[in-house]
User: Fold this.
Amino acid sequence: MRTYARRILLTTSLLTSLYHTPTFADNSRAIDHGPIGVMGDHYHKAGEWMVSARYMRMHMSGNQTGSDTLSDAEVIAQNNAPGRMPGKLSVVPDDMDMGMLMLGAMYAPSDRVTLMAMIMASSKDMGLKSYQPPAMMGMGSGMSASSRDLVGSFSTSTDGIEAISFSGLFRLRESVQSRTHMTVGLQQSLADADATDTVLTPMGTRMRMRLPYSMQIGDEALRLKLAITHVHQSESWVFGGQAGGKFKLDSKQWNFGDSQHYTGWVQRSLNHRLSYSGRLTYERAGTLEGMDPMIMAPVQTAIPANYGYRQWRIGVGLNAVIPLLPGAPERLGIEIERPFDVQVNGIQMTPKWRITLGLQKSL
Assistant:
């Protein structure tokens, strides 16, 4: 009887341990972390540290209004902001590349709370074309928008520390195969919103001007970050979802609009060290609020009404566990996303693709 009692006690203890220790708890497999483009997808056990580095690159080219593509001639036929000269847009963005480096650290003071800090640095490069301005009175002498001569091409660029954020990840529910947690944090834009560069004006001269809003690294705003994440995991599959947003708490002259995202992903384990993923994301952002009177170039990106969008993105990714340094193996991730069904306010550039690379190291 004592033998049977010991076996029953041992079995009960084992089942209890399995219930309270999820299959993903050790975070040692490639599939134990979500796609590298998902922020705050997991938390840690008490005393654990993790550092990470991500680099995201995004490319835009061409222009659109709503969901319709615009040619250069159609762009320069549009009115400039009221009260600005010339009366028609005369500078057309051609393409834009944005890079963002994100350095982060996570620490869990308890099993229920994980703290996360992140600093972001960005660079932006845009190619543009300047067109001959219309005559001061209307288009003048029968001149049409399509007949305005190209003055030339030029480029602008800017870079700097964009923002810093501090967040807490709070475990809400955890079982053998699923977990749910909430993220609450603050993000402060650090860059001064007064970056300048030399531009080619429609008159053919070069002058230094304050760059439009989209080329500013930051907007000096303080934001609240909120997200809720749920993950269900089996031995070889993971299904995850996250809903989140950033909401302005304080700003100065102007600020980018609030944004929200809803994303879902599925991952498949190839083996302990390798997994692949597919992800679908819906994202929306509100229009720009306020204005800077020093931003006045005759280009669509200098008009606050030409901000805010709704877009879907589809992505594929790969996670790998590779020992590079002493200690726990590093996790490498790559994800490529392509936007579709993009709807914009006013006139904006068209997003084409983004790629995210990342390295994570548990300590």
